[in-house]
Design a protein that fits this description.
alpha+beta
Length: about 425
């Protein structure tokens, strides 16, 4: 620890907390020894000043090492955020909502100053005209409520990203091929896989619930639960409509918005097209030469075997009410209600799922699909919602301008078939 002239070596930086603690203990021991030597030689005027100088140097080295030890054990802002309990996180959001004070959010690493450009009407409604990235507990709570109003989230593939606004996935359009061959037979290469790259963009949406000043001041009003419910419902309904019929422009591409092609038997339609069968007329389900459920048999058998295991029928409640009345030649219903809690009812042995945003039976509508929704459609979530409280826009009310990003796109068109109602 000392140089040849007795002076202490400068403290070398280290990131090992155990090593820092060991060196600090050595310095403390050396410091105590110098104190004893000074006391024992107080009468020696020639050496006392030099020893006091050495003692001061050792004391400074000890202080520096103690600071290094403290810093080595200090958690980073990320550690604080990760170790914070759910109650701490929700408490931070609650304080921010009621008072506009972001102190706890900042402590948990949830401040996002780059949102300053979104301050409404140029009014500084939060610290430094900033916005705040809501913590995961709050984000997830809103997501859970959204699923109540967006049925498709329970059936589709859902992907969450933490940065950026796009998600890309390569899809095999045709599959690889193989051939039989003899031991010495050269057949050249087999067909190459035909890849298609599907990219999903997370589009931004906004909801603005507002609450009166008196409500925010009421300690018995559960603002956090209320705003989670309101945001979940608002975003859930907005997304649900887009996931089915969205244009793909500043909103998700809907699962029924892609190009469509009429099925010819079980022959697969072109890649990227939704294959469909058409009813015989616009006022019923029967085909030109068949009974009411003949068309359901057709779309079920047109789906490739690899998608049958997870396949289900999708329709809204109005369509389901019609399908429930179908009967076979023996006057028995082909729709079978479930007798097990949590299990779906079935149609021709396959689950029936309801998605409210599907169309009713009408001319040229597509009211029913059958297939593997998880393989067919992917929903993209961009983690983190952003909130900007604004108490200035409307007198007596605080608006909570909340931003969320999500997207959706058909990934494998062959995993779904549809019924089209005749014109």
């Amino acid at each position: 620890m000392q140089t040849r002239n007795g002076a202490p070596n400068p403290v070398q930086p280290t990131n090992n907390a155990s090593e820092v603690a060991t060196i600090a203990n050595e310095l403390r021991s050396g410091y105590a020894d110098l104190q004893q030597r000074v006391s024992a030689r107080e009468q020696d005027g020639t050496a006392i000043e030099a020893m006091r100088g050495e003692l001061a140097t050792q004391a400074q080295a000890l202080a520096n090492m103690q600071d290094a030890l403290t810093r080595s054990n200090r958690p980073s802002p990320v550690d604080i955020a990760n170790e914070a309990s759910g109650e701490q996180r929700l408490s931070a959001v609650a304080q921010f909502m009621r008072t506009g004070n972001p102190e706890k959010l900042i402590a948990l690493g949830a401040w996002k100053p780059e949102l300053a450009t979104r301050a409404t009407d140029g009014v500084s409604n939060v610290a430094a005209q900033g916005g705040y990235l809501l913590l995961p507990n709050f984000d997830q709570a809103v997501e859970r409520v959204s699923r109540i109003f967006s049925d498709i989230r329970a059936f589709a593939n859902v992907v969450t990203i933490g940065s950026g606004d796009t998600y890309s996935k390569a899809t095999n359009k045709s599959g690889a091929t193989a051939v039989w061959c003899g031991e010495d037979e050269d057949l050249g290469d087999t067909d190459a896989i035909d890849w298609a790259v599907n990219e999903i963009t997370a589009h931004e949406s906004r909801a603005i619930p507002r609450y009166s000043r008196k409500v925010l001041a009421d300690a018995f009003f559960n603002l956090e639960a209320e705003i989670v419910k309101d945001l979940g419902e608002a975003f859930g309904k907005l997304e649900a409509a887009a996931f089915v019929n969205g244009s793909g422009v500043k909103q998700p591409e809907g699962l029924l918005s892609i190009g469509k092609a009429a099925q010819a038997g079980v022959t697969e339609v072109a890649y990227g097209k939704l294959g469909y069968y058409t009813t015989g007329h616009a006022t019923g389900w029967a085909t030109v030469a068949g009974d009411e459920f003949d068309i359901f048999t057709r779309i079920q058998t047109a789906l490739k075997t690899e998608y049958q295991a997870r396949a289900a029928y999708y329709m809204n409640r109005v369509t389901l009410s019609e399908v429930m009345l179908f009967k076979d030649a023996n006057d028995l219903p082909i729709w079978q209600p479930t007798m097990t809690a949590g299990a779906p009812s079935t149609l021709r042995g396959k689950p029936v799922r309801t998605i409210e945003e599907y169309a009713d039976r009408a001319a040229d509508a597509f009211p029913v699909t059958y297939g593997d929704m998880e393989a067919y459609y992917t929903i993209l979530n961009r983690a983190g919602m952003e909130m900007l409280p604004n108490p200035y826009r409307t007198t007596g009310f605080t608006r909570f301008e909340t931003y969320k990003r999500s997207g959706g796109k058909v990934m494998k068109s062959e995993a779904m078939k549809a019924i089209k109602v005749s014109a």
